[in-house]
Design goal:
Largest interface: A-B, 53 and 47 residues
Strand content of chain B: under 5%
Number of helices of chain B: 9
Number of domains of chain B: 1
Radius of gyration of chain B: 18 Å
Distance between the termini of chain A: 44 Å
Oligomer: heterodimer
Helix content of chain A: 40-55%
Largest sheet of chain A: 5 strands, antiparallel
Shape of chain A: globular
Distance between the termini of chain B: 11 Å
Structural class of chain B: mainly alpha
Helix content of chain B: over 70%
Number of helices of chain A: 6
Number of strands of chain B: 0
């Protein structure tokens, strides 16, 4: 019985069903995001549990698909972990029996899945741990934050396109020198659009509310994100592994065909 | 002469390639190569239109997708087989001719455009879309004529790789500009749906029920989902602020 349950959890068929369900919920979600612009987009500026108590619980008509999506992704994570374990148990004894290249090709999908699992875990960490704070960013403004933290916006420098005429006056970039104060830190640094700054475990992002900043309203997003360290390196690693794996697989297939002939 | 008029020779070359394909059944390669080169010239002029190099002038789905499709067609024609390349000609030509009816002005760069990850994201995303569409066309052919499924599978795999690179570069760009690697929003959810669809495809080979024929149908259905996404995307882009055109 236990073996049968394990086989179902670690099965590729389960993966296919879960991925199909995830695709479906992503599509449904995208439709909701096209139709609704007040409640759902707040997910980007709150931790999941805060959003859930503040908005999600009261608007199940808008958010039902999200819980099903998160459940599906959680099950996909369990399925991925079980697949990794299952394959490792099967493959590791082959380490010395096959050639190095063949073994690397055989084990690579399992390693790719392992990194995918780490990325999923990173997204989970980002969604439920740390903190997200969004404050208006105007020159001379002082913002007091919980935990004795304080931000002073020392200035705000806008840079505009000067040529050609059709572009002149449109925002090219912006920078805000700020002073960040905590009970054990006091320092000044400059945050720019596209160039966040990391200090004392927080990342500071300058963002324009309007795409072309016609309104000249800037905001500062202050995040404490524990998942990002898994997500970004994980992404690069997975690309490098896939870029190696597929050509290597075809090379191995060709080699085996030649041997077979 | 308006800038939009510069696209007319490009469209004419594509129309010629399409008519050669439909009527003469041969001699398609040269008009298609001409169309590709003319389109490369058009894209270069578009990217320099503001007086400095603006990758956004090239990397717009409506005009770069047919360019990629044509590039893939020519590459397969020369390096692999004419048989595999020919079915892609009408797809490339139809996408290129559709652009005639779409807005041609330039979307001005925003304060979040000057990042290396932005052009990298758009380049790999559009290239992946072209590879997915090409894979579906070849899968459709293999369904009709009982031909080998392998060329379609290869294009789908390369498409998946390009799409994954797009997701990574896009996530880094999103983190730098918007503070998160994944935003809850229409575009990111669509991308996630497409990515899951093709991840799913890669897993089908481990299930015996999924024969080449069934996988062929899957690739066709996946491309239809992608096309629906492109229509929605185009709808959004057509309402964007544009300069000239």
């Amino acid at each position: 019985m236990g073996k049968r349950i394990w086989k179902t959890i670690a099965s590729v068929k389960t993966t296919v069903w879960l991925l199909t369900a995830a695709t479906l919920f992503f599509i449904i979600g995208s439709i909701y995001f096209r139709l609704e612009r007040q409640v759902l987009p707040q997910l980007n500026f709150r931790l999941f549990q805060d959003w859930f108590t503040e908005f999600g619980l009261g608007r199940l008509d808008l958010s039902w698909w999200l819980y099903l999506l998160l459940l599906t992704l959680f099950l996909l994570g369990v399925n991925t972990a079980a697949c990794i374990l299952d394959r490792l148990i099967q493959l590791l004894p082959l380490w010395k029996k096959t050639g190095r290249f063949e073994f690397a090709v055989t084990i690579m999908p399992t390693l790719i899945h392992l990194v995918f699992f780490l990325i999923l875990s990173g997204h989970l960490l980002s969604s439920i741990t740390g903190s997200v704070e969004t404050v208006a960013c105007g020159p001379g403004q002082t913002i007091d934050l919980p935990g004795g933290r304080r931000i002073e916006v020392l200035g705000l420098d806008y840079r505009y396109h000067t040529r050609p005429e059709s572009l002149a006056g449109r925002l090219y970039g912006a920078a805000a020198p700020i002073r960040f104060h905590t009970p054990d830190y006091d320092g000044e640094f400059t945050v720019k659009i596209l160039a966040p700054v990391h200090r004392r475990g927080y990342s500071f992002h300058l963002d324009s509310l309007d795409k072309y900043a016609r309104e000249k309203i800037m905001r500062l997003i202050i995040r404490r994100d524990f998942g990002i360290r898994l997500i970004i390196p994980g992404f690069w690693l997975i690309i490098a592994m896939m870029a190696w794996y597929f050509p290597a697989l075809w090379r191995l297939k060709k080699k085996n065909e030649i041997k077979g002939a | 002469m308006s800038f939009a008029a510069l696209y007319i020779p490009v469209a004419a070359a594509y129309a010629l390639a399409l008519s050669f394909f439909l009527v003469r059944k041969r001699g398609v390669f040269w008009p298609l190569l001409t169309a590709f080169l003319l389109q490369a010239g058009y894209l270069t002029l578009r990217s320099l239109r503001f007086g400095f190099f603006n990758p956004g002038g090239i990397l717009e789905e409506s005009v770069f997708l047919p360019f990629c499709l044509t590039g893939i067609t020519l590459w397969i024609w020369r390096s692999r087989s004419e048989e595999d390349a020919r079915p892609l000609v009408p797809a490339a030509a139809l996408f290129a001719l559709t652009y005639l009816f779409l807005p041609k002005g330039l979307i001005p760069p925003s304060a979040k455009s000057p990042s290396l990850f932005s052009p990298l994201f758009f380049f790999f995303e559009i290239l992946a879309h072209a590879l997915f569409i090409a894979a579906a066309v070849l899968a459709g052919r293999s369904l009709r004529r009982e031909e080998t499924f392998e060329p379609a599978h290869r294009l789908a795999v390369w498409g998946f790789l390009a799409y994954s690179i797009a997701q990574v570069t896009g996530a880094i760009w999103c983190y730098l500009g918007w503070s998160v690697p994944f935003q809850w929003g229409l575009r990111h959810l669509h991308s996630a749906a497409i990515w899951c669809t093709y991840v799913n495809y890669l897993h089908l080979r481990y299930i015996p029920w999924w024969t080449s024929r069934r996988k062929g149908w899957y690739l066709v259905a996946a491309a239809l989902l992608l096309l629906a996404y492109l229509v929605v995307l185009q709808w959004g882009e057509s309402r964007q602020l544009r300069i000239g055109g």
